[in-house]
Amino acid sequence: MDVTLLGTGAPAGLPRPDCPCAACAAAQGAQARAATALLVDGALLLDLTPGAAFAAARAGRSLAGVRQVLLSHPHDGPAVEVPAGLPQPGRVPDGRELALLTGHRVRAVALDAPGTGYAVTGPDGRRLLYVPPGGAPAGLEEPMEPYDLILADVVGRPDGLAKLRAVGAAGPTTDVVAVHLDHDVPPGPELARRLAAAGARAVPDGTTLTVGAYEEVPDVPRRTLVLGGARSGKSVEAERRLESFPDVLYVATGGTRGGDTEWAARVSAHRERRPGSWRTTETCDLVPLLKDDGPPLLVDCLSLWLTDAMDAVGAWDDAEWAGGGERALGDRVRELTEAVRDTRRTVVAVSNEVGSGIVPATASGRRYRDELGRLNAAFANECEQVLLLVAGQALVLRG
User: Fold this and answer.
1) For the segment 227-275, what is each residue's pLDDT rounded down to a tens digit?
2) DSSP code, position 274
3) Which residues contact 277 (CB under 8 A, 6 or more apart)?
């Protein structure tokens, strides 16, 4: 079964008409995308968009053999003209299956937003799932066989991919291709980087995919360190990297700090933007978590872990520091980094980068700065990917 993507963009296309944003300004040439539409084996058209016939011709395909046109989501604006020879577009009721004379079977998948998803099984038994923009499959509870290909709004609804992974519908060999791409993410390397972190990829308009053929599915880094200064966007970046995976364990190392209203507001803001399926634990005892099997860990942050560790060894007292505190802290850091090296879990850790600013005025401040630099370097050495966030922009230092 072959799928030709006549378009891969959001319903308004990319760039959006009359949009002055930087992402739209950069979406030129090969980075431009028409509204998403799929041509399956030349016989089934999923979503009819303006210029579909021309898009097919540019991809070396024809719509002359199309026997069924199905719409997946409400279309704003004037009705799209149906090219001559094409059947009138329709929609399959949720849960119902449509059998085509070509041997394809199309089952309508219920969503948690207006629209209909379509699961298509080809004559060769290969299976694909197409999800419209802004939607995610609803009512997924029972385990499912993995699809060979999933085309979905990975950027806009990463939780939809998480739901599919939770029931096995998106497996290790499933080719996940992002469609309905809008100006939420700058095109080019940044889009590819964010999708790779979710185990997905993007392809240009006009690409033909062979369902079930081996594709180099992006490897999700198992250990990632996200560094950055204050309000650099490092926590948002770390959370984004795991939002397409179910059952994440969020490890908060900062505690509750009773009576500190500013800290409580920060903690509340973090909690509100996390997916509801994530669990949270407040602890600095990271080694047992790293040694156990389980869902991905998001550790936020190593800076506060270090504060707790330095408190425990008396690092703020010069005599205790010289009398064994420095050695004890080194042992703790070594135990942590060895656990990171041996862990089987997916780990994303956040830490502050504090050594590039003003030299702290106190000896204890300088000691903390130095030890955090050493901790970051040791932790980064055990990670497949290391990112530095500057003004909300991710710079890849490794991986």
Assistant:
1) 999 899 999 999 999 999 989 999 999 755 555 566 455 556 656 656 7
2) S
3) 159, 162, 166, 246, 247, 248
Q: Which residue has the tokens 């998480």?
A: 162
Task: Spell out the residues 6+ positions from residue 369 whose beta carbon is closer than 8 angstroms to its own.
Answer: 354, 355, 360
Q: Which of 212-216, 261-265, 362-366, 376-380 is the least confident region? A: 261-265
Tokens, residue 376: 């970051």
The answer to whether residues 283 and 251 touch, using CB atoms and an 8 Å cutoff, is yes
Q: In angstroms, rounded to a whole number, what is the distance separating the alpha carbons of residues 109 and 94?
A: 6
Closest CA to 244 of 198, 208, 293, 189: 198
Q: Which two tokens stand for residue 100?
A: 């085509």
Which amino acid does the sequence have at 209?
L
Peptide bond into 87 cis (omega under 30): no
Which residue, among 38, 299, 276, has the nearest Cα to 163 in the 3D structure? 276
- Judge if the upstream peptide bond of residue 21 is cis by omega within 30 degrees of 0: no
CA triple 93-99-101, angle to 5 deg? 140
Q: What is the pLDDT of residues 55-105, one digit of tens each?
A: 999 999 999 999 999 999 987 766 778 888 899 999 999 999 999 999 999
Please, are residues 290 and 347 in contact by the beta-carbon 8 Å criterion?
Answer: yes
Please say whether the beta carbons of 279 and 247 come within 8 A: yes
Residues noted as catalytic: 270
Q: Are 320 and 312 in contact (CB under 8 A)?
A: no
Q: Identity (one letter) of the amino acid at 352?
A: N
Cα angle: 279, vertex 282, 286; to 5 degrees: 95
Nearest alpha-carbon partner for 204 in 175, 174, 179: 179
Closest CA to 71 of 10, 115, 39: 115
Q: Are 184 and 155 in contact (CB under 8 A)?
A: yes
d(CA 375, CA 208) in angstroms, rounded, equals: 47
